[in-house]
TrEMBL record:
SMART domains: PH, RhoGEF. One of its GO terms (cellular component) is nucleosome. Residues 206-363 form the DH domain. The lineage of its organism: Eukaryota, Metazoa, Spiralia, Lophotrochozoa, Annelida. It comes from the Eukaryota. This is PH domain-containing protein.
């Protein structure tokens, strides 16, 4: 199930998934996983079978970590580096090291270390093991469990449900390249999602439901702003703290964030203080901000974002060696392309969101934007360009050609003919520099297969395609980078409890 660089003689024969062994571990993690779920999504609950499924994943992971029969923390760390996809390996190891540093009394771990340790020694390994090694292993397990639950909870909240099901976990994991590579690297056909899921269409919304939807939208918008500020802007702020480049590229995004936080706070306060039978009026929230000219931050932001010099300066800076080294150290080799292509699209988001306020105020009309990209590209092979019609889905890119046969004696013929298809998580997207022979091109690198080179008609078309592809390819890692940044910020600025005397 997991990629491994160890030789068979080095690996333990203990199978955590075998029924005779599984029974000894079954249920050991369930109560702790409930606590982990409450930590990452306190407003949600999880069904028993969902937690049992995560327990199975955890045991699978535990088997991989114990397969090389580790005797020290360093050996476990080496195993994680060799087998975990990058960059989740460094985040898991960072959490594990924190657990070690805090010691037993201040341990942040929820999973039952004291119950796991004797089972590991007696059943799985068969030799004495330092308790610290078990702490490190359990911390890695808990990080991954929290990651799965955080990802699934985000999906559940987006579809406006309040309970995590087994089906939700499978759907969320299917869209996550890192977790699929970790747990199901070669099993595309075996990891199936049931197709009998029913979605209930909501009827006419009450005013309160509309307000709650608005708050949910603003919360997601705050998340997107945080992604821009703490993942993309932060490296440039570190490298060029006093440079005007920050304003040229990101404009007054910090002021936009502050204004959005104020609006969200007003909306939440209004919803909270309104009596059950009282009239809920949130228009006053917009009116209050408008009277204070708070929305004017968007005027400067829109003017700056619609100028070309921001993107031009961004492209110049990411060619510098110091910038490249910093970006790669933070997010791996794919982060530079995400900065080049995904960031400019994200920076346009606040403009579209501001325009959406007018729809909210005028008609209370709500809609979800489902990203679907299709269009014409040219496949480059043997110095020939062949036109292909491309369909980009959430986890699949499909290359087709126009079917010149419009009908046949056996029945109608499809408008397009399938030529190739690629699983998004199985490919690497590589940017290609322009040459005299080929311009506006990028490459789909498929392991153990010939690469596919595609070219767009214009630079703008290429930028749009690269943004769409890289958004799908990197979004899970970008989310994890944001979570890591928020955790670090929380550590640096912990909430200090007030002295009890204050309340007397």
């Amino acid at each position: 199930m997991f990629p491994s660089t160890s030789t068979p003689s080095e690996l333990s024969n203990y199978d955590f998934t075998a029924e005779e062994n599984r029974s000894k571990w079954r249920g050991l993690f369930i109560k702790a996983l409930q606590k982990v779920q409450q930590q990452v999504h306190p407003s949600l609950s999880a069904k028993e079978d969902a937690l049992e499924y995560i327990e199975g994943l955890i045991l699978q992971l535990l088997g991989m970590l114990c397969a090389s029969q580790p005797h020290s923390v360093q050996e476990v760390e080496d195993r994680v580096q060799k087998t975990f996809p990058h960059p989740i390996d460094k985040w898991a190891m960072s959490d594990a090291q924190t657990a070690l540093d805090k010691g037993k009394k201040k341990s942040p771990l929820v999973l039952p270390v004291d119950k796991i340790h004797p089972l590991l020694v007696r059943e799985a390994l068969g030799y004495k093991l330092d308790h610290q090694v078990t702490v490190y292993i359990v911390a890695v397990l808990e990080y991954i469990a929290a990651d799965v639950l955080k990802l699934t909870g985000n999906y559940v909240r987006n579809i406006k449900h309040n309970e995590i099901t087994l089906q939700d976990i499978k759907v969320a994991m299917c869209a996550d390249k890192v977790l699929m590579d970790m747990f199901f690297p070669n099993e595309e056909d075996d990891f199936t999602v049931e197709e009998n899921t029913t979605f209930v269409r909501r009827g006419s919304l009450t005013y309160e439901e509309i307000v709650k939807d608005l708050i949910l939208e603003e919360t997601q918008y705050m998340h997107d702003l945080n992604l821009i500020i703490k993942v993309f802007r932060a490296p440039f702020a570190t490298l060029f703290p006093r440079s005007k480049d920050l304003d040229v590229i990101f404009s007054n995004i910090l002021e936009v964030y502050e204004m959005t936080a104020n609006l969200l706070s007003l909306l939440e306060d209004t919803l909270e203080v309104t009596d059950e039978d009282g009239m809920l009026l949130v228009g006053a929230c917009f009116e209050e901000l408008a009277e204070g000219a708070e929305f004017e931050v968007y005027e400067k932001y829109a003017e700056d974002m619609l100028k070309p010099n921001g993107r031009e300066r961004l492209n110049t800076l990411i060619q510098r060696n110091d910038t490249l080294r910093t970006l790669q150290s933070i997010g791996g080799r794919g982060f530079k392309d995400a900065v080049k292509y995904v960031l400019p699209k994200l920076l346009l988001g606040p403009i579209y969101h501001f325009l959406h306020y007018f729809d909210v105020i005028k008609s209370n009309y709500y809609f979800d934007i489902i990203v679907k990209t299709d269009g014409v590209l040219f496949k480059y092979a043997g110095r020939r360009l062949t036109e292909r019609y491309i369909l980009l889905f959430d986890g699949l890119i499909v290359l087709t050609k126009v079917n010149t046969r419009r009908a046949s004696v056996t029945g109608p013929v499809g408008e397009y003919k399938l030529k190739e298809k690629f699983n998004i998580r199985k490919i690497d997207i590589v940017d290609r520099e322009d040459t005299e022979e080929l311009k506006n091109a990028f490459e789909l690198v498929v392991p153990n297969q010939s690469s596919v080179i595609l070219a767009a008609k214009t630079t703008e078309d290429k930028n749009n395609w690269m943004a769409a592809l890289l958004s799908l390819h990197t979004r899970s890692n970008l989310e994890r980078m944001l979570d890591t940044a928020l955790k670090e910020e929380e550590k640096q600025h912990p909430l200090k409890p007030l002295d009890p005397q204050v309340y007397r």
